[in-house]
Queue: 2 jobs
Job 1
Amino acid sequence: MLKPCYKKEFIEAGCDEAGRGCYAGPVFAAAVILPAGFRHPSLNDSKQLSEKLRDELRPVIEKEAIAYAVAAVDNDEIDRINILRASFRAMHLALDQLNKKPELLLIDGNRFTPYQQIPHLCFIKGDGRFAAIAAASILAKTYRDEWMKQLHNEFPHYGWCNNKGYGTPEHQKAIEQHGLCKYHRKSFRILPLQAAIL
């Protein structure tokens, strides 16, 4: 059972990212402030939910949230500053867009770069513990999946409509056959074939 909050007396924003381990595409992050006591029987860590259920929950979260925002950092910036910093930057960009200022940040993971003067707490597997982080994980995941499906239209041979840029056997085989494209993360040292860039 997800906890509705960490401290009732604070306005809490849950933050999570999606796409950190992918070979291609941006990393997305979301920040969500839920109303006190918000519950939904299906709300959970996005990785534990089917794509259909995530897509069903997204409009519910967007409608019920006090505030939410989603942001992305592209593969070029990931290559410049590294994926960890890019993940934190995406979270900061999402927090910048919130129309209500949180008093406490609940972060999925074990590290975070402080944001402004707002205190934060990191939770390993926090998306399976707190409702706001779970909601953020669903928004980040659904927005990123939608983005990768659009990129698939430009480079259909990588199968991003299915693998969303993750290093699946299908994706690896396509890289071996076609090389890397402009959306791949070159700093990830995916394959020795990186010299071939479409």
Job 2
Amino acid sequence: MIDTQLLISGVIFGLSLGSIYFLLAIGLSLCFGLMRIISLDQLLYYSFGAYMAYTVGLATGSFWFGVAAGTVVAGLISFIVERLIFRRIYERDPTFSMITSFGLLIGGIGVIKFFWGVVPRPVEVPTVIQVDVFGTAVPVYRLIVIGFAIVVYVGIWLFLHRTIVGKAIRAAIENVEHVEGLGINVSRLFTITFVIAGALSGLAGGLHAPLIMVDPMMGLETMAFVFMIVIIGGLGSIKGTLISALIVGQVVSVGSIIYAPMAQMAPFVMMLLVLLVRPTGLYGSPLYKR
């Protein structure tokens, strides 16, 4: 029998972990949905966001200023990468973009090691306040992380459904040729989407930094889970990415309470079961069927 307080703590931990995964995975999902590229370099922007939160937070004494700096820097780096590299390979096979972005990720890890070294760095939690949730003390910071994910999801939904640019992006995800035929600058849509994805990855890294040790390999360490989330939710689906991220977060968290090895094994089993029933993911479009 699982202790109630332990279970509540596990659920909150799972929600906060799922929130981080959502902020990171949404970039990969959007990039494939619109540009048909597999952007593994989003994991690099995640790492840069974490290191900027560490560096700027240490220099200014403000963790939140560090998170903001990490988000901006990640967005700026993603803009440069999109302009110099990805713009040249959009017409290539998705496998080519995956190899290219993986090369960027490995090269970026080398840059991180050059500037920050290989020793993991701790980031102080901005608040140690705890609140009572059904008789269980829960760290406020984890609730803040969950709140960030909710705000981002609502913001992206409003952007895609209530703005002209967002509606153009949604239309381009379904059919790029039709959008080009309307005289819309699709290249600019690609850039906007890529920068948003990079900035959100940087935000994920900054928010995750106090919950882990900031490490050069942190992006690679999350790669498997991010891939699972995107596949389970359905490529290009915002709603699917959120739901699958929260599910994977709970499976990892609660699974580790029930039986520790389950935390690593169960998400893969869940992905296989989902793909057997729905090969395009929970909310994937039939467009992606092969």
